[in-house]
Amino acid sequence: MTTDLSIVNLVLQAGPVVKAVMLMLALASLISWTFIFAKFKELRLLLVVTENFETRFWSGIDLSELDSHISSGRHDKAGIENIFHAGYQEFSRLKDQSGMEPMHIVEGARRAMNGQYTREMDLIDNHLPFLATVGSTSPYVGLFGTVWGIMSSFQALGNMKQATLALVAPGISEALVATAMGLFAAIPAVISYNRFSTNADRLASRYETFMDDFTSVLQHHAHVKTTGRN
C-alpha cells in the first residue's frame, strides 16, 4: 500500500501541536503579505509625491500658491507635502504677529516641520517591526514544530516491533512541512523588510534635506518681512 505524501495530506495527518504551529505560520504569512502589498503601494506613492513636490517647489512657484494647491483638497496630502504645509502654516502664523524676530519665526516653523516629520516617519515605519519579527522568528517556530513532530513519530515507533522507512517517512515528512512553512513565511518578510527599510531611509534623508533647504528659504522670507528689504 502506497502512502500519500502530498503536502495537503501531510498537513491533515499532522498532530495537533504541529497543526497549531502550521496554522500560526500560515496566519503570519497571510498578514505579512497583506502588509507587504500595502507598504509597497504606500512607499511607491510617497516617492512619487516627493519627486513631484520637489519639482514644483524648486520651479520658483510662490510659497502661498503652493500651499494653497496642496490644501485645495484635490488630493490627500502625503509625506513631504505635510511637512511643507506644517512649516509654512506656522511660519505664516508667526510672521503676522507683531514684534516677532526673524529667528523666532523660523525656529517655530522648523519645530512644526520636525513634529510633522516625526509623525510621517512613524507612519512609514508602521508594520515594519511585524515583518522583522516574522522574518526572524518564523524559522524557529517551524523548527519547533518539526522537532515536536519527529519526537512524536519516534515515540509512536517505540510501540512497534519493527520500524521500517515506510513507517518513519510519513511522520518525519509531516514534521518537516512545519520547517518549510516557517521558511515560506520568513523569506518574503525578510526581503520586504530590508527593501522597505532602505526606501524609508531614502525618504527620511530627502525629508531632512528638504527641511534644511526650506528653513533657508524661510529665513530669507522672514528677513524680508521684518526689514522690508530683499
How would you spell out the order of helices and strands? HHHHHHH
Q: Please state the structural category.
A: mainly alpha
Largest sheet: none
Mean pLDDT: 83
What distance separates the N and C termini? 93 Å
- The total strand number stands at 0
| Shape descriptor | rod-shaped
**Residue share in β-strands:** under 5%
- Please compute the radius of gyration using only Cα atoms: 28 Å
Fraction of residues in helices? Answer: over 70%
Tally of discrete structural domains: 1
Number of helices: 7
Which spans have pLDDT < 50 for at least 5 consecutive residues? Answer: none
Fold and architecture overview:
There is one protein chain. This protein has one domain (17-67, 77-227). 83% of the residues lie in helices and 0% in strands. The protein contains seven helices and no strands. It has helices spanning 7-13, 16-57, 63-70, 80-95, 102-125, 128-157, 165-227. Helix 2 (16-57) runs parallel beside helix 7 (165-227), helix 3 crosses helix 4 and helix 5 (102-125) runs antiparallel to helix 7 (165-227).
Task: Describe the structure concisely for a colleague.
Helix content is 83%, strand content 0%. The protein is built from seven helices and no strands.
